[in-house]
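Rotation project, supervised by the postdoc (A.L.). Task for the rotation student: set up a whole-complex structure prediction and record inputs and outputs verbatim in this book. Inputs entered:
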Amino acid sequence: MLAAAHDSGAAVALLGGGTDLVPALRSGERVAGVVVALRRVLELRVRGAGADSLTIGAGATYTDLAGWSLSPGLARAARVVGSVQIRNTGTVGGALGSARPAGDLLTFLTAADAEVLTASPRGLDRQPLPRFLADGLAPDALVTAVRLARPGGPQVYLKIGDRQAAYPAVVSCAVLVDRVRHRLTCAIGGVGLLPARMGDAERYARDEVDWSTGTVSPTAARRFGDLVVEAAARITPALPAGPRGSAEYRWHAAGVLAGRAFARCLHVTAPPAGVPGGPAGDSAVGGQP
Amino acid sequence: MGGEVVSGGIGRSVPRPDGPEKASGAFRYAGDLRVPGMLHARTLRSPHPRARLGRIDAAAARRLPGVAAVVTAADVPGVATYGLIVADQPVFAATEVRYAGEPVAAVAAVDAATARRALAAIEVDYEPLRPSTDPEQVLAADAEALHPAGNLFREIDIRHGEPGVDGSVVVEDRYVVGMQDQAFLAPEAALVSPAADGGVDLRVATQWLHSDREQLAACLGIPENLVRLTLAGVGGAFGGREDVTLQIHGALLARVTGAPVRIAYDRVESFLGHPHRHPARMWFRHTATADGELVSVQANVVLDGGAYASSSPAVLANAVTHAAGPYRVSHARLRGVAVRTNNPPCGAMRGFGVPQVTIGHEAQMDRLADALGLDPVELRIRNAVRPGDVLPTGQVLGAPLPARELIQLVAARPLPPPPPAVDVTGLALPGGLPAAAEPSRVRRGVGYALAYKNLLFSEGMDDSSAARVRLDLTDDGTPRVRVHSACAEVGQGFVTIAGQIARTELGVEQVVLAPADTAVGSAGSTSASRQTWMSGGAVRGACVAVADRLLARVARAAELPAEVVEAPRRTLRIAAGQIVGVEAGLRIAIADALAEGPIEADYTFHHRRTTALDADGQGDPHVAFAGAAHRAVVDVDIDLGLVRVVSMALAQDCGTVLNPLSLRGQVEGGTAQGLGLALMEELVTVDGVVVNPTFHDYLLPTTADVPDLDFVAVTEPQPDAPYGVKGVGEAPTCTATPAIVAAIRAAVGRDLRRVPVRPQDLVDLPTRSDLPRSDLPTSPHLPTRSGVAPAGGASTA
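Outputs recorded:
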């Protein structure tokens, strides 16, 4: 049907939850001759678990994910997206389709080495998330699902924005630990146009973590954050200057978030005094006037 | 006054009559109005902050099926420009556009999508010119005039005491305030219908029907009596509806097409369409004696008025006359300019120039306290003004203004418990639910601010308010009061208060409000904390006149002596639906007294006269003031610069309280809007272009951001106001911002000179030279697009 609509020459828009599409159609930012509503395609809403992997249908909502015990990190990322209304209607497919820099899910999926499954008249296809985001979706194709590895250890998703209530992320960070494969992955969102992996920091972690105990030294947490700041400053293409946060602040915040996420995923051997991003062992709260 | 037992009178927490509808979603806002056969209008706006305007070719747009009309500057039959104070703003740009977002043309079509397509089909030749966006440069001798009227809207120089007299302790600094938007939730909307008599009828969400009418009539080139306005449901205003926006465009299209026209903005257009709060650049120098007595204050305030005047001249007067704050000072030199730039126009917003200077003078008072080794509360108590003091304008401060008491009261409120060492939910720490904050890296700060804010229009303005009150019987013979006022209800609660006043004065429970429209005299603007005082005063005056006539009628009917008929209140009074004369042994139901016919009276309320400022900034400019003091407690994650406002306490000088519930709504709203300015609300412009005109990028505080308000009202009556009221909505907006900024300053130990405070202002940032690579861009505002990720480095692929 998608192919038929496409062949007819009409501009086709795929409607998932509509949180991006409906406002865009209303404002005239997007024009569609045909809207294909996907909500009732139940196959797209399936979530499944294999021996090593999790498959999430493109029609799964944030609310679906937020309660999913098989992927606590993803659940955590989904839980802090927008408002209840947005979480109830916004979908995984929409997050991939719109690829907004502030998209919480993209940061997590980038750290998770996710694969995107698509369907088109040419058949089924599957590609790594970065390639999918770089190439974009073919006009006659549909995202059917996203696939990622089963969690192999602690996963932390952190983001910051400009208020206490629901906010679009200014900077986001996902850290995923695989205790089995002795591997740690880290992605930063909100610095580049798309989330970026922190390769140097990941390699540093691989060598510094004591994988037999899952512990790490306090200096390692700090060094991990510093490496992320350096890597964040090199992300290209960078997000254009916007109203919220200078580039330098976003690099800095990426380092703090990464350091904290790192420390929360691993056991830090001793609490370092006054180290930014140090573990939550120091309960003293100063500054009380 | 009578009616001591009538329910729903003044002093009670009477609920809003429109409350249930607003809470349930049934209330009809201006944007909800529809009539059969109406056209949909949209406005074409300049993308350039400054450009010479060449040919506008609308032929293709007009040819589109469904397009009814396209209008441009050439189609304005009357005066080509409009404005609240000075008519310097073109209805449509004719020769030059002066800000990004300036209207160039408007279209009416059968539906909104067709209208949008028509806009895209209009060809406009712009010759971009270099915009002037730095308010400190536009007055330079070699600066180009951005408008035939020049770049200076107004300059004020207040000289008080002796020049050059200083105390031994000196603090001096510069402060910057960003551009806040009113961000009311219901965007601009009107439904305009052409009338058979050649006139036009508007149902519009506005703050001042009669000012709109005057400007509409002038631009349409028709007499004012042919322009009739009725207030449509208003979803917030905060000053943002004082200026005309879409009214004239809609009326032009309705008259050209002969059809009703719905004109309504979406959120982006709302952000571009109305004037904002003035960004300010301020310099202050405070001096004090070694024991903490303020000796002199110098201030220099630059307000960026943007491309057109709007209310800049009046905002500047407020900013400069309040620049020293509510403090006794013997010597002051307070100067200010409001200037024209190619930034978006700025005008009225809650606080009207006072929030900006309060941010400055309160930062200075804290700095002074630091320099003196004094507690900031103690320094304020020592220097707070008292009634009878001479202000820098020479005006003698009237009573009441309990400034000392306010700061003492707020300082005495209990403090909240310390921040949690472990936060399971994430909600109790800076940053909220995503739980990025680290409890061990959270620091607490407490800050104070004290301010006063003028009430009503100033500088000799006689902004009177008229009301008409009619007392009659319903079909079933029950007495009923009908109040007719043009007062714009924008959420402040006049619809509640007017009923309370009528019940109190006339002892009648049933009160109806006629729609606010231009069939009755002007009520003046719903701004400047003035409507409860001014239109409340008008309603009260009209009610008293009705009551007098009613009592005289009863006295005549009872054949009481002529002197009683002349002055019936000496022996008769109204009490709960009856007219009672104890001496005369009289007791008559109001319903019976109305049997011979209804009674109607008009009343126009004027406040006391003030005077303009002379060349030295001296005069008696303000009718009265209201004081407020806030204490803010914040927690800051010192690594991320995230701020959570933990508690807000407010003590406010409220005059007599007519409705405690309504008062609470006003002070909570004022506090929230001040919090927004402190932490997040800023329209950011880059070379004159607003880069965040959406609620995705312009964040408002929500219930998760604003703590419950610990509020203490000081209720000393204002002598010359009806019932002793004071306006209450603005003063807390002025103090909330600087109190929060002071608390953050205390938490992080940094001088903060810019508002809103951004996370990046609270942390040590990496500089590019700290980082290993050298080919990085040099300006944070010019992000790289050409940089190459090094091998092994981060990549987006």
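Student's summary: Confidence is low (pLDDT under 50) at residues 773-797 of chain B.
Supervisor addendum: The longest strand of chain B covers residues 442-455.
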